[in-house]
Amino acid sequence: MLKNNGLFRKEVFESRKNRFVGNVIVSVPITFKMLALIFGLMGLALLIFIFSGEFTKKVRVSGQIMPNDGFVKIYSTRTSIVKDIYVKENDFVKVGQNLLHINNSFFLEDNKDLYDSISYESNQRIELFSKEIAKEKTIYENKKQNSIKELDYINKEISNANQLFYTTKYKLSVANDVYARYKIAHRNNAASLDEVQIKESQTLDLKNQLKQIESELDSLKENLRNKKFEILSLEQEHLKHLTQLKREGSEINQEKIQSQSNSDQILKSPIDGKISIINIEKGQTIELNKILMSIVPTNTKLVCFLYVPSNAIGFIKPNTEVSIRYFAFPYQKFGLAKAKVLSISETPIPYQDLNSLGLIPMQGITSNEPVYIIKASLDKQTITAYGEEVNLKVGMLLEADIKLEKRKIYEWILEPLYTVTGNI
Question: 213, 165 in Cβ contact below 8 A?
Fold first, then answer.
């Protein structure tokens, strides 16, 4: 309806008041208003959600359960046959405890065991050397006893010669006195010249005897020194020969031990721990460098080893939360496990080279992209299954979601624009 605002005459408005069809009135239903209000609120809520809401970016990686302190692997040192296994999985073992008995037998053309034949020959040679040593000792003892007897005889000869020397020396002293008195008596015409000459001759004889005795004493003493040196040399020669025989016998015995170790070998535990995995059975033939069993150190905790590609490592840091799904326990039924990042390796390693570290790469993955190894601590060392706590085991494979960063939803929506702008 037009209003009179001075632009039209009054009659115009009066003529428009009386119409047969009446005035058109636009009526808006209440439902439309409600819908408009609802959609408006929804739009407002969406805007609030976009600008205030956040989402966490995650990366999914593979991994496995491993001991925190690592574990010890027992390898075969040659191709052998397992004769006996002394332990079972989950058994606790001590250092030096027997783990298994392996045998490495080879047979000759006459069906004789090679190592048994070598051992028999070694025993024969050891017995021969034992007889040689006994013979050497007997010969030495006989020579030594003979030399000692000769030494005793020389000592007695020296003792007798000394007695004779002192006796003769005394006689010479007496003879000199008598000879001196006879010379005085001869000057006094109390003794004849013949008597003086006889006494002089006796004195000279005693002097000659004394010199002979001295010469014999010197000779006996020289013999004594030579005999002592001979006994000492005999002992040294005996020890030298005996040492040589013992050395040769020791070498033969070592060959025997080596032969026995090549034939039969008892593998012992190098640490205190728990048997984790046994990869062999009794009677099985094992190849060189085969992993026979693994031992987890005592009192070590299990952790997750996660293999993270280089394009996802940037935002991971210690204490980052990790959600874990064990392949052995479907998460749809048993839920997720929780963990936190403990440490991150400094350098990556090609994925297919994880075996060289004793780790187990996921089956079916052919990519050799380098990965970083992340160690994560578990909230629990068990998982609840059917109301019971089941212990986790070393080597269990898993998948994990690692939380990387939180971002606003609008940032995620506008990320393509940021990318284009950044490229420009």
Answer: yes
- 71 SS3 class: coil
Domain-wise residue ranges, the chain: 23-55, 56-70+300-424, 71-97+269-299, 114-259
Cα–Cα distance for residue pair 167/123, rounded to 1 Å: 65
Burial class (CB in 10 A: 0-12, 13-18, 19+), 330: exposed
Q: What is the mean pLDDT of residues 308-319?
A: 86
Cα–Cα distance, 103 to 108 (Å, whole number): 16
User: Among residues 70, 68, 66, 64, which one has the least CA distance to residue 397?
Assistant: 64
Nearest CA-CA partner of 59 in 358, 371, 350: 371
Q: For residues 281 and 274, give the distance between their C-alpha atoms in angstroms, rounded to a whole number.
A: 18
SS3 206: helix
> Which residue has better confidence, 314 or 342?
342
The CA distance from 216 to 186, in Å, is 37
- The conformation of residue 330, written as its DSSP 8-state character, comes to -
Q: Tens digit of pLDDT for each residue in 148-192?
A: 888 888 888 888 888 888 888 888 888 888 888 888 888 888 778
Residue 259 vs residue 291, higher pLDDT:
291
> Considering only the top CATH level, what class is 114-259?
mainly alpha
pLDDT band with cut points at 50, 70 and 90 for residue 324: very high
Residue pLDDT, tens place only, 45-61: 877 766 666 666 788 88
- Classify residue 245 as exposed, middle or buried by CB count within 10 Å of its CB (0-12, 13-18, 19+): middle
Confidence of residue 108 (pLDDT cuts 50, 70, 90): very low
Q: Judge contact between 286 and 80, C-beta under 8 A.
A: yes
pTM as predicted? 0.50
Residue 45 vs residues 18, 410, 415: alpha-carbon distances, Å = 50, 14, 21
Give CA–CA dist 156/290, Å, rounded: 77
Query: Which whole number is the average pLDDT over 390-400?
Result: 88
Of 3.50.50.60, 1.10.10.10, 2.40.30.170, 1.10.10.200, the CATH number of 56-70+300-424 is 2.40.30.170
CATH number of the domain located at residue range(s) 71-97+269-299 in this protein: 2.40.50.100
Same fold? 56-70+300-424, 114-259: no
